[in-house]
Amino acid sequence: MKTSDFYFELPPELIAQDPLKERSASRLLCLGREGGRVEHRRFTDLLDYLRPGDCLVMNDTKVIPARLFGKKADTDAVVELLLLKRRERDVWETLVKPGRKAKPGCRLIFGDGALEGEITDIVEDGNRLIHFTYEGVFEEILDQLGEMPLPPYITHKLKDKNRYQTVYAKKEGSAAAPTAGLHFTDSYIEEIRGAGIKIAYVTLHVGLGTFRPVKADDVREHHMHSEFYQVDESQARMINETKRAGGRVIAVGTTSCRTLESASGEDGALQAGSGWTDIFIYPGYQFRMIDGLLTNFHLPESTLLMLVSAFAGRERALAAYEEAVRERYRFFSFGDAMLVI
């Protein structure tokens, strides 16, 4: 299976550069898994496709302001840092730009010395381990100095950093938002609950894989970066009870999907616990847990489009994407939504 099998033409002007004024004002393309029927709706029509007893599963990770700008202590050269993964209390795996001269022993200064770091090692894919020193609380300093790590295809500056955060974001640790959840408001979540649909939460801290293109010609040769996930006992129980009662489990976003599939056993039961997953879902994968998927529109030839294709069928998914282009849907993080059910 070739990476080029997942290519489609996307006009650049369809890439949403800014969030809509109202979170839930986006459009919703509904794709039927059986037959491939496409319907064009509004996001708040989602309830028309849900039934009492179904369960929506959301990723409650919280994006940290993980992009830092500073300078090298010895040359004052400007550096850009993206925090990817916390290894120890004050040691982070990071992406450093420019990276060529960022060698072990190099000291970095941020915010006039409020935060300092020293590169201690070079690890997989050229990422740097940095040991930070500071006075006070790291998260508070990061909130003052850091910026939201918007994807590279978004060139506009974000006016309100909370718009790159779901309303239910709770557990800090992501370098990117689980963007399918950006459409939900507190009031709409309550309306969904009021209709007899359960809401469950899992956690997956979105990492470097979100920013990495597939470079291998053969899909099977691509390596996914590992990301930390957690499923609490109460949430696993709710999701398993939904399945046993004949309800449908609908993942809100590819990150929720990957968490559910990673934590499900061969018997189809979801296991509570935490760990690291590098699961790569592409056509041919046999789903264990999810019955529906709510997601945004993704990059051509991306692992996220491959996941959608695995669930909906490649030809069906690409045909829906081509129709979305014709109908001028908004794409990517701040774009419109798609329901596959």
Précis, in short:
This protein is an alpha/beta fold and 341 residues long.
Task: Give a description of the structure.
Helices cover 18% and strands 27% of the residues. Helix 5 packs across helix 6. The protein is globular, with a radius of gyration of 20 Å. It has 2 domains: 3-63 and 160-340, QueA-like; 67-145, QueA-like (Thrombin, subunit H). It is built from 6 helices and 17 strands. It is of the alpha/beta class. The relative contact order is 0.21. It has a 9-stranded mixed beta sheet. Strands 5-6-7-10-9-8 form a 6-stranded antiparallel beta barrel. It has a two-stranded parallel sheet with strand order 4-11. The two termini are 25 Å apart. Strand 8 and strand 9 form a beta hairpin.
Largest sheet: 9 strands, mixed
Helix count equals 6
Given as residue ranges, the uncertain stretches (5+ residues, pLDDT < 50) are none
- β-sheet strand percentage: 25-35%
Taken together, the total number of domains comes to 2
Q: Please provide the ordered H/E string of secondary-structure elements.
A: EEEEEEEEEEHEHEEHEHEEHHE
Q: What's the CATH C level of the largest domain? A: Alpha Beta
**Mind telling me the CATH superfamily name of the largest domain?**
QueA-like
The SS-based structural class is alpha/beta
User: Which fold name fills CATH's third level, the topology of the largest domain?
Assistant: QueA-like
Which second-level CATH architecture of the largest domain applies?
3-Layer(aba) Sandwich
Task: Let me know the number of strands.
Answer: 17
Rg on CA atoms, Å: 20 Å
| Termini gap | 25 Å
